[in-house]
Structure formats: structure tokens, C-alpha cells
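Support reply, case 0932

Customer input (verbatim):
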Amino acid sequence: MTVPGAWPENLGSLADWAGYALVSSVVAPDSRGTVRLACAAPDAAPLVDPGFLADPRDLARLETGLRIIREAVAGAALSRVLQAEVWPGPDVVTRAGLRAYIRRTVGSYYHPAGTCRMGTGDLAVVDPQLRVRGVAGLRVADASVMPAIPNAPLNATVLAIAERAADLIATG
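Our regenerated output:
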């Protein structure tokens, strides 16, 4: 999740403030977005809908994460250093309030994946050899070919895809 862009006035300047942030996240969401062509012009930006919280399980997971964070800071280890909860704020206590906060502030780690699915089915854009279906001589070797988002940082997975692509290209 991301926090709102505006810094609360009652906290003074960011330079004068010290603190810590605990956030909940869904690394492998069930929600799915879309990337579509806006038109036939090659220089036109695509239509991107990240589909955040489209699947209700993701909202439930983030709510649970916020509750776990609150339990953690109420414990002995962190309660000594907690001065104030900034977001969502101590006045947000109901399920509806937590979920409203999540809906307002949900964001991305900017690691989109799966927009050019690899596989053998009708929804696959890229075959198992990373070749784009219907386009001779073109392969895709990045996070977009992942048919499912791994519950892990994408970097290592992308490196493995790139190594496999190098082998496929070298062996023809």
C-alpha cells in the first residue's frame, strides 16, 4: 500500500519527524488488471487498468495485515516507541473504516507481471519458447510472460527467464 501524498500539517515538517512504517501488502494478488491497445497507432499509450482490489480476497488480506500491524505495535516491543499512529489513524477502528482507508490508498510496488502470458492455451500470448504467437522473430523475456505472479520478489524470476531466453536464442 502507498500512503497519501499530503503530509499531515499536525506533524510539522518531514525533516523534523522521525518514525517507522509498518505496511501490509499482497505480493501475489488474486485481483487481475488489463493492458489493452487504445487504438491501432503504434505510438498511442496503452489502456492500463491495474485492477487493484478487483478480487475481494485482496481487500480482506490487507485488512488482516493492518490488524496484525496494530497488534504488533500494541505489544511490549513496539509500544515503548509508538507516539501516534499516522495512517489510517487511531480513530479508524471499524472494518468499514479500515477498508475505506485501504481503498483510498492502495497502490503498487511497480512490478507489473503477467501482461503477456506464456503458455499453450488460448489466452497465452507467448509460447513456452518465449516466441510471440503470430509474430516471426520476436520473443519476450521479462516479467510479462509469467502466467502467475510468484509470491516473491520478481527480480530472481526475471533473471531465470532471461537466462532461459538466452539459451533458447543461442540454440536457435
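We compared this against your earlier run and they match. Two observations from our side: Confidence is low (pLDDT under 50) at residues 1-7. The beta strands are 34-36, 47-49. Please reopen the case if you see a mismatch on your end.
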